Amino acid sequence: MEKVWATNYLVVENVQRYRLIMRYFYKRHRQMQGTLYRPDVLEMMRQEYSPAYTEIEVDQDLENLVTWGNLQKQQEMIRPKSIEEYRNKNLRYQITEAGILVEEMVYQLTNQKHAARGALDEKGVRKLLQLLQDLVKEEADIVDLWPQVREEFRKVGEDTANYIGYITSPEVDSQMKTEQFLVYKDQFVNYLRDFISALQSLYHQFLVVIEKMDSLNIEKLIDGMYQKELEIPMMDHIAREEVEEQVLGQLQALKIWFKGREGRPSEYTNLMMQTDQMITKITGLIYYFGQEIHQYQSRKKDYIHLAKWFAQAESLEDAQKMYSGIFGLERTRHYYVSEGSDATSMRDNSWQLKPGTLFMRKRGKNARIERKAKSFVLNMAEQQKQLAQYRQEITAHRQQIEQYFHEGTVDFSKIKQLDAASRKVFLKWISQAVATHVPKGVTSQTKQQITQKIVTELDFEVEVHVDLNTRVQVACEDGIIEMPQVVIERRGNE
């Protein structure tokens, strides 16, 4: 996947000069006058590009195009008759095959904007089916039939893909959303439906032919196509392996287009789905525009009919009831009640439920919610009671922790059973010690040990020693925890 140098002149700095030269060579090639000389190019550039275009610039531009493979030069071996001819060296230039391909691509991109719209051609599909049937029956020479099958299949595939790409493009999509599209709606829908009906009626026959292609003499076809390539006099013939790869790849593409592959739908299925979606979209737009047009139609007759009803009303109250039934309430207000209702299901009748209460407040720019000061009674006895209860809980919690200290030390390798509440406290101390520890001079050869002092919530300090190289198992009331060897020493107040 190297750089394609033949397209280099389209993106360089002096792109306008190179494109003028290549377009000149391409036009002369189409007129079968492909050979040009340096003075011809120089004269054309001074007319089309700039009168100040110099001979040095034309030499540079032509040489660059030759280097990139767009042009080829050849020197004519004649005796020069002047200094000018000697200096020009009688070089003649001609556009290469790569240059022709690039210019054709540029020409199609710039001048044939709508050339690739494609079509849904029923005749092409029927012709492809007939060629495939003749191929599997081998009533004619398969070597002569195969290029026709290949070309017709390529045309059907490209035309259908281009047309689907065209009708699903943003440009056509925006045009469909205009009222002018209503003129073409029937033509679009009928065109798509006719093609779908024709392709669906032929699909089963295609599947039968595709299945029969497995019994086709592939070696005979490959040998025949290779022999036809050899009959064309060329210096570099294509190898048989390349011919075999092309034929097998084209056969596989033909099968995939109608049958698909494992895990992926066929191109036929995608084509049916996209055309069906387009028909649905078009009919939806038709309904939308129909509703829009109906909305803006004159309602004069309707209002005259309603006026007759009001004229027949016997009282003003009857007319008001009729008005509210036809046009609804003029002014409505909706309120949200935050209180929960007694409904237990969405199917409950709202008229049978207990109504909620809505407290109305002032509304407006200067409206403020009134805040009333509420008094409270300071209950000193209850406060002392809760404080004493809290102190008892703290004392019990401290005694529960202190029972694990023996001579001011907790060795986790010697604990017989650890309760869940104390385990949470100890693990919090260990995590705090590990997090605040700053290693000094620790290497891979030294033992990884952590020693850190921390202040606990129980009004005393502890020194935590963690040996990361030794693992111990501690029995808890709800299971066994595996952790590094930890020793906690109590410091400070006893």
TrEMBL record:
Ranges in a coiled coil: 373-407
InterPro entries, per the entry: CHP02677
Swiss-Prot/TrEMBL keywords: Coiled coil
Name assigned to this protein: TIGR02677 family protein
Taxonomic source organism: Enterococcus lemanii
